[in-house]
Structure formats: structure tokens, C-alpha cells
Write the C-alpha cells for this entry.
Amino acid sequence: MAIPRNLANLAPKLSATGGSFATTIGVGGATPAASGSGISFPATASASSGANTLDDYEEGSWTPVISDGTNNATMHGANGGTYIKVGKLVFIGAYVVQSSGGSVSGAIRITGLPFTVGGRAGVTAARGETFTITAGQSVGIAPSQGSTYADLFLWDSSAGSTVFLASEFGSGVSSLMFSLTYEASA
């Protein structure tokens, strides 16, 4: 295949393994990457008024907790979550492991989301263990706009879903693994 004329002058500079660049890029007041390559963002977002300006990137961990809004379950040591935030878009993953339901009753939620929910969301519940639900039913997660929690619900009727109850999650060791993408508020 022939190299287009406007790219022909670049061909001698590229090897079979790709080009080599020694340029660093700093965003805002960030110090360029020490390795000499990559993009480095400042520790605190440098908010831009341009909707198409990538000015915020963050990675971290968060602690999910099963709650009824008043009482919290006792969480197991394997419990935990991670997140990546790019601009306003937040990607989270969690392994929610309860040791004991304690005083949790009624409808339950997962608290501790790393950023306040501002809008649009999508979720995948990958795995749940020791739930007291009927075969064929599935668990859903719906982040609550303006909060840092997500409600759990159960697809269990021909009409749709109902709230997921503490009694269905279980009173002892129970777990849920999921990933969730949502838009953070400002």
C-alpha cells in the first residue's frame, strides 16, 4: 500500500514499533510527568468555562455501605470500591460485602458514592451472593440525583421492579459486585 503524499515525509521517522516522543504536557498548573511522557493534571481541578476542555481527572477508592437511610449494616473487611473521574463522568466499581445486617430494615441503599450524583447513570450488577430472592429475579441499582447513595431495587414482577429489602439482601454475610457510571454534579 502506498503512503499518501502528505504523510510520505513522516515515513522515515517512524519505526515498526512506532514513533518516539520526549514531550510532556502539563494541564493548568500541573507539573509535567516525571517519566518524561504522559499528561499530568493538577491535584485540584482547574475548572474551565469551555465545555470541551478536559480539565479534571482523578482516581481513588471509596467505601460502600449497605444502609436503610438511618442504620448501617456491619461491613466485611473485603468490602471496598474504586473510582475514576474524567470531567463530570464518574466510573465506579465495588465489591459490597456485609458481615451482618444489624438493625437495617426495609428498603436498602448503597451509601458512600465518591461524588454527588448529578444526572444520567448506567449500571451493571455482576454478581450477588446469599440473597433471599426467587430464581429469575435480578437486582438493579439506581443512583439518587443530588445524593451520594444509590437505591437498590428488585426486578420481580411483570409490572417492573420493587425496592430491594434488607430481608432479601440477607441478615448475615451477603455480597454484591457491580460497576456504575454516572454524571457528577458540578
In short: Residues 21-47 form one domain.
